[in-house]
Write a structure and sequence with these properties.
Number of strands: 18
Largest sheet: 12 strands, antiparallel
Order of helices and strands: HEEEEEEEEEEEEEEEHEHEHE
Helix content: 10-25%
Number of helices: 4
Low-confidence stretches: 4-9, 11-16, 18-36
Length: 415
Amino acid sequence: MKNNIKKVFGIKTLILSVLILIGIQATAFAQRDTIQLKPSFWVGAAVGANLNYYDGTTQDINANLLSFPAFHKGSGVGLYLAPTLIYHNPDKLLGVMLQVGYDSRKGKFDQVTTPCNCPADLKTNLSYITIEPSLRLAPFKGNFYMYGGPRLAFNVGKSFKYDRGASADGLLPAQPQLKGDFTNMHKSVYSLNIGAGYDILLSEKIKGSAEEGQTYKQVVLSPFVDFHPYFGQNPRSIETWNLTTLRIGAVLKFGHVHVAAKAVPVVVIVPVIIVKEPEPEVVVVPVVVVVPEPVIITTTYTLFFKFDKSNLDAQTIKNLNALIIDLKHNSRIGVDIKSYADIRGTNKYNISLSERRGKAVVGYLTSNGIDASRINSKGLGETTVFNKNNNRKINEVNYALNRRSNLVVDIATKK
């Protein structure tokens, strides 16, 4: 019986050894005709189009321009140009990629209508020098790849163009185009990007007959799509303007393949010992459910007053009733009130008048059930005057625009 067992075990060992030998020999012959088609290092240049989408609030453009009402949404197309450096071993899943270049986030906000029933347009020419290091993943070790990483951008362009057209009734003509730079801009922004691409070989494929010790140039075109979410992309240190970008483009890259000398395979027969693996230990991991906090987006209300008055008219009360509904719907938000007056009268009187206007708004809110701890109010008189330097500053429309209270609703204003 023991002899039969030894014979059976010996036959199995012999068969396994022969299969291993055949497999090694087959691999050796296959390797003789296999040449690495992709280099590990690539250099090139990327070009693409940034599809930019604006959201949030933009009103206080600079010292010479305060828009009524505020701009909110918009879109545009910008240019992207960047040198590219890539390291990725074709036999590995992971690699790295670095792009440094010019990144345009320009666009145009949706048109708004001012209190004089005039159309207003705002165009931006926002641009950055961007640094984008990424981790590169080739999940199938083929031509398809994905990547992602941080984005560090330095602002190099912040100009705008503002156009206000003629009023619908024709009483007010169109204003000349106003050009300038945004104020309160971040010098640098930190965000992230994720994308995917596909390598298309443009040069001639290297065949198994390639000469040993030779170097062959490889050229690849890689179309890609890249997504930049709005996280961290607020261009300014004030207000809530943010950006979301979808980038579409291609990278033309170059590399070199060195064909090494063929190695003679060494065959070593090793006996196979089969060891039963232990049963895996079952580990129960508790599932943690994470409920994200709601995101509150700033909302701006603008109320207007009659000359030398601080009482609330029917339209103002209607606007405040809408605000009260929002405040009662979410007890976590508060309201910041800044009241103003036009340039007529002394500065001391205008401060007092703007404070009375703010108190009138606060009194109406508290009388309708809004806790005073959720309200901040300040009278600024004529310290921030709309169109102060306008040659037609005596126009009644300009006076009316400055007899106002600005109410900004934000979770950050709660005491």
